[in-house]
Design goal:
There is one protein chain. The chain is mostly helical. It contains 13 helices and no strands. The chain is 61% helix and 0% strand. The termini are far apart.
C-alpha cells in the first residue's frame, strides 16, 4: 500500500530521503551501497508496518545507510509498474537515441510532463537525490550509479528475455542524462524543507558546484529561481 505524505510523496520515500540527507552517507560510502545485496527478510519486515508507525522516522533513523537505500530500492522495484509507466517507458528509452542534444532533452521533458502526478513527483525527488549525491562525490562512479538505477527502476518490470544489453545501455544513458541535466529537465522543481536545509548547508560548506542565495526556512525555492540567483 502506498501511503502519501503532505508533499504527495510515498511516506517511506520521504522518510528515507530525509534521513539519508541527514546522515550524509556519501562521506564514507561514495555510492557503493547501491550495488550491495539486500536482506529480503529485513526489508520486508521494515516495509510492512512503516506506514502505520507514529515514530516511523525515529524508527528508521537508527538504521544504517544500506538498509535505507535498500528500503527505497525495494519500494521502487515492487511498484505495480515502472515509475516511467508502462505506456511511456519505451518512449523514454528511445529518447536517448535522438541525435540533437536539445531535441533529446525536450523529448524527455515532454515525456515527464505526461507522467501521472505521483510518478512525476517521485521521479523528481528521486533524481534530485541522485543528482545531489553525484555532485557531493564529484561525480565519482556516476556511470555505474546510472546502470544500477536503470536495473532497479526498469528491469523488474521487463520480461527477462527482453533484458538486452542494448536496453540496459539506453536506460542507463537515460538515467545518466536525467541526473546530469536535472536542472534543465525539471526547471520548476521545488525543494522540500529537508532538501532545502541540506542544500543550504552544503552551500555554506563551500563544497557544491551550485550556488543558492536562499533562505534555509524556505521550501518554495525552485531550480529556475536558483539559476536566476546565480
Amino acid at each position: 500500500q502506498c501511503v502519501l505524505d503532505e508533499y504527495g510523496l510515498p511516506k517511506i520515500i520521504t522518510f528515507c530521503l530525509s534521513i539519508l540527507y541527514e546522515k550524509q552517507g556519501w562521506e564514507n560510502s561514495t555510492l557503493s551501497w547501491w550495488s550491495m545485496l539486500k536482506d529480503e527478510e529485513e526489508i520486508n519486515l521494515l516495509t510492512s508496518d512503516i506506514n502505520s508507525r507514529k515514530d516511523a522516522k525515529e524508527y528508521l533513523s537508527v538504521l544504517p545507510i544500506k538498509s535505507l537505500t535498500n528500503l527505497m530500492r525495494n519500494f521502487i522495484e515492487n511498484l505495480d509498474e515502472v515509475i516511467f509507466t508502462t505506456e511511456l517507458c519505451e518512449q523514454f528509452e528511445m529518447s536517448v537515441i535522438i541525435e540533437s542534444t536539445q531535441d533529446r532533452i525536450h523529448q524527455i521533458i515532454s515525456l515527464c510532463e505526461l507522467l501521472p502526478p505521483l510518478n512525476f513527483q517521485l521521479v523528481q525527488h528521486f533524481f534530485y537525490f541522485l543528482r545531489f549525491f553525484s555532485e557531493a562525490t564529484n561525480n565519482q562512479k556516476i556511470t555505474k550509479l546510472a546502470s544500477d538505477v536503470a536495473r532497479m527502476i526498469v528491469f523488474p518490470h521487463v520480461p527477462y528475455t527482453r533484458r538486452s544489453f542494448e536496453q540496459l545501455s539506453r536506460y542507463s544513458t537515460l538515467v545518466y542524462i536525467m541526473i546530469k541535466k536535472f536542472s534543465r529537465i525539471f526547471v520548476n522543481f521545488t525543494l522540500l524543507p529537508f532538501e532545502q536545509d541540506i542544500h543550504v548547508a552544503w552551500e555554506i560548506s563551500g563544497n557544491s558546484q551550485q550556488y543558492i542565495n536562499g533562505s534555509q526556512n524556505s521550501s518554495t525555492i525552485t531550480l529556475d529561481q536558483q539559476q536566476q540567483q546565480q
